[in-house]
Amino acid sequence: MTTQFFFILTLLVGLLASGCSEAQNKNKNMKETDKNADMTSKIATKELMKDSIQKTEEEWKKILTPEQFYVLRQKGTERPFTGKFLVHNEKGVYTCAACGNELFTSTQKFDSHCGWPSFYDEIKGGKIKTVTDNTHGMVRTEILCAKCGGHLGHVFDDGPNPTGLRYCVNSLSLDFKKD
User: Fold this and answer.
1) 148 catalytic, yes or no?
2) Boundaries of domain holding 122
3) How far apart are CA 32 and CA 68, in angstroms?
4) How confident is the model over 101-150, as pLDDT tens digits?
5) Residue-wise pLDDT tens digits, 58-100
6) Residue among 99, 145, 148, 168 flagged as catalytic
7) Which of 19, 27, 105, 174 lies deepest, with the highest CB count within 10 Å?
8) How many CB atoms lie within 10 A of CB 151?
9) What is the full DSSP assignment across 11-60?
10) How far is residue 95's CA from residue 5's CA, in Å, rounded to a whole number?
């Protein structure tokens, strides 16, 4: 009976160890895939922005606050429901905080209840570029300022008419010019 007990215990420990090893390998593969997707996104972003404003990271750090640098240059995200433009109803134009490029008008803004300022359309004329973002195990469409390459947020297809789009934008990536 003792031999059978140890046999079963050894078998269970072996199965548990192989399951842990498999989970670790899967996690490692997911991290590697995420890293490759991030690198692909960075290459695509660099290619899109080759004709835009070119500054070094140190130059951007002198221009932007640390929070803006994190969002605009490192593709970060501000916490939901904290941005200064989430509940903002003045008439005017929303511009890129890094370079002043005009991106959205106040008439294009709507309350999506998602935690970030949302717009159903952009100002026409190629002010915003898009790139596929495969990071964090998701496939999304990242939006970038076409003039400086700054990360603005993402665009989704769950917005209101007439476009059906929701440009979900970090307040930290925006400034505002009153009409």
Assistant:
1) no
2) 5-178
3) 28
4) 999 999 999 999 999 999 999 999 899 999 999 998 999 999 999 999 99
5) 999 999 999 999 999 999 999 999 999 999 999 999 999 999 9
6) 168
7) 174
8) 25
9) HHHHHHHHHHHHHHHHHHHHHHHHHHHHHHHHHHHHHHTTTS----HHHH
10) 71
